[in-house]
Amino acid sequence: MGYLGFIFASSAPRTSPHDVQTDLTTLYAPKLPVARQPKPPSVPIPMEIVMTILESAYDNEDIRSYNALLKNSALVCRDWSAVAQKLLFRHVTLATQTAYIAFQGAVDRATPRGRSLGDAVVRMEVVLDQKQPYRLSHKSFARAVSMCPNLYELSVSLYGEGAPGLDVVGSPDASRMKRSAPSFDERTLAILRAGPRISALQFCNWSDNSASLLQLLDVWPSLTSLDISGTTPQLENDAAEPFPCALRELRMNLQSSPSLEFMRWLLHNSTGHLRVLDLVREPSPELLEYLVAEHGATLESLALPTCGTHEAAAAVRKCAALRELKIEGAWASPVLYKFLPCGLEHLAFSVDSDTALRPVVQAIKRSLELRVITVHIWRGGERHPQLAEVTLACARLGIELRLTRDVRAFRAITRGDPVPAATYPRARSLANLLYMASRTVTTH
Fold first, then answer.
1. The whole model's pTM is what?
2. CA–CA separation, 311 and 399 (whole Å)
3. How many CB atoms lie within 10 A of CB 159?
4. Which of 18, 127, 376, 434 shows the greatest Cβ crowding within 10 Å of its Cβ?
């Protein structure tokens, strides 16, 4: 190789093969692990607070919205579902056999959940309609009642079935109203007697069967509140034993004025106990005279459709303990307002363009205990020149003034729950609903 070749050859470094892989990814220094704080354990809201919140949303004037709230609340979780369902079952409506089958499965007393829901029912509305293809049977109605041991208030609507060709809507023929409906059989009555002792009964009868009411009245000697409407009831036997209940409240909206014999039979044991009397339709002079003579001394609330005669005004004067007076008609005798009871707390009346309001204004100024005035404005009443004087008199004395143009709203806001009243006007409230629930629990 030569000299130079030896030098270069001896001085060149020797290389060894290596397996090299090229990675163009940027490398970072390893991060230290982050110490995460453990989540605190979730604390569920106590069910007592959940129930209080849901109960506080109770609105009797808009029960559909309230029920919708409860249905949505039942979807939150299992615990909320139990609470919301109990509140939903406080007020139950059954109109068909299909609804009864579903209700029967829900309140099955063989299960803890069924017993809980059945015990929660305080109010029940039942529709017995002979014209419906899937109508609720009498025995199913009785069984539904028996499944609710804490039932306080029961509403029964009975509709008969007209004969072919005679049940035409709009027909002026009086025979159209002759709708037959069967009476309750002994088995049904036996089931009802073995069930809860209800305190309030509403019976709306749109059939020609006047015996159904008497059958139901015979079942519950515990009644303190009775609301009857529709077909006028009649005694089948003049020698029948008097109705045993001591009624505190009676409301009637009948097609015709009942006989004095029936009223004596119905209120025989209510002397000294009757506090609320609501007559939706004009009573006969003889009936009004009897009611005031026998029960006027203890009446605290009286509702009349009209009071335009001196005789009617004189009858009201005999009710010296009145704390509430309601007159639905727009015309009332001026004499009525000159001698209102001194303890009156609530006055309800109607106004049209011709109503005499000067006596009303003077009565308001003389009042000592008046707390609330409810006024129904008939057509033209909003332009009454003295309506402003009523408003001013109420404002000066600190009296609450409630105005409405809807007669149905007027009736609704002047009717309260069927419970004893400490003040008037009575209300439909959550407190009353809780009273019903506690009352039934302690008496069963």
1. 0.84
2. 29
3. 19
4. 376
Provide the CA 326 distance to its chain's centre, in angstroms.
Answer: 20
Q: Is the pLDDT at 168 greater than 70, yes or no?
A: no
How far is it, in rounded angstroms, from Cα 123 to Cα 117? 13
Q: What is the pLDDT of residue 128?
A: 94
Q: What are the tens digits of pLDDT across the range 292-329?
A: 999 999 999 999 999 988 889 999 999 999 999 999 99
**336 and 304 Cβ atoms separated by less than 8 Å:** no
d(CA 84, CA 74): 5
Q: Look at residue 239 and tell me whether its pLDDT is greater than 80.
A: no
**Residue 115 half-sphere exposure toward CB, CA atoms < 13 A:** 4
Place of tokens 């020797």: 14
Q: Which residues contact 270 (CB under 8 A, 6 or more apart)?
A: 245, 246, 247, 248, 250, 295
* Cβ pair 316, 302 in contact under 8 A: yes
Is residue 1 scored above 50 in pLDDT?
A: no
Report the Cα 404 to chain-centroid distance in Å.
Answer: 20
Burial zone of 241 (CB within 10 Å; 0-12 exposed, 13-18 middle, 19+ buried): exposed
Residue 192, classified by CB atoms within 10 Å of its CB into exposed (0-12), middle (13-18) or buried (19+), is buried
Handedness of CA 263, 266, 272, 275 (dihedral sign): negative
